[in-house]
Amino acid sequence: MIEADATEFGLVPGRLAFKLELLQHTGSFKARGAFANLLLRDVPRAGVIAASGGNHGAAVAYAARRLGVPATIFVPSITSPAKVNRIREYGAALVVTGDRYADALAASEAHAVRTGAMKVHAYDQPETLLGQGSVGLELEVDASGVDTVLVAVGGGGLIGGIAAWYAGRSKVVAVEPEGAPTLHAAFAAGEPVDAPAGGIAADSLAPRRIGTLAFRIARTHVAPEVVLVSDADIRAAQAALWSMLRIVAEPGGAAAFAALLSGR
Predict the structure, then answer these.
(1) What pLDDT score does 101 carry?
(2) Are residues 7 and 132 in the same domain?
(3) pLDDT tens profile 40-51
(4) How many CB atoms lie within 10 A of CB 114?
(5) Residues near 51 by beta carbon (within 8 Å), at least 6 away in sequence
(6) How far from chain centre, in Å, is Cα 36?
(7) In this structure, are 218 and 176 located in the same domain?
(8) What is the pLDDT of residues 69-115, one digit of tens each?
(9) How far apart are alpha carbons 59 and 206 in whole angstroms?
């Protein structure tokens, strides 16, 4: 974690704390949920299987290699070449199928039925949320007194885990790309529903709908006003993070800060 003065970014005076999960194993917070699944569940001899836009797949592949477990990862065609290469480097069997995460998920579920491999869901699995919730635990320890936590949302594993950890002690605000408003749509409908799955952060923040588990937590512990940011907002946040802090963040990693920087 690093801290910065908000005025350095042209914002009103205040303290900003950035949780640098891009420095985590495999480059994102996803390693937490991957290890939680493999360590807390009984893994069959057929190994594990996961669908991912890239980050979760890399995390499961890495955890599986470290624990000596076979892994098969399904990703859509929009997954960045860097993430595809990372999954391969970790030794997992890789299948590229469909245009979006939902296509890869459907293919992975069919493969799991055929092989008996254990499904490691990217966000709608109790162990996944448990692992991601450790981000909140560490943030509260390292940045005590933080009154508002901004969390980017895709399927909801990260915000579900963080919101469950804070449980109302700090305000948790969801941030989503305008092109993939999964939680926003669910709040409006009163339940998880299909939403668009586009935008520049589509390989990390664009499942078809919010996870059931995360939605249940969000209704109680996440602010009801979801902040939607544009692709231009996200690009501006990426540029500011590099210019001021020399942080290179992928679009999904810059989305939460985009909500603050844009004034939304």
Answers:
(1) 87
(2) yes
(3) 999 999 999 999
(4) 8
(5) 57, 73, 74, 75, 101, 104, 105, 107, 108, 109, 122
(6) 15
(7) yes
(8) 999 999 999 898 999 999 999 999 999 999 888 899 999 999 999 99
(9) 18
Q: How far is residue 77's CA from residue 217's CA, in Å, rounded to a whole number?
A: 31
Q: Which amino acid is at 28?
A: S
Give yes or no: residues 17 and 133 share one domain: yes
Nearest CA-CA partner of 21 in 30, 12, 8: 30
> Average pLDDT by consecutive 10-residue portion of the chain (264 residues)?
95 96 95 98 97 95 98 94 94 94 92 96 97 97 93 97 97 97 98 94 90 97 98 98 96 97 96
CATH number at residue 224: 3.40.50.1100
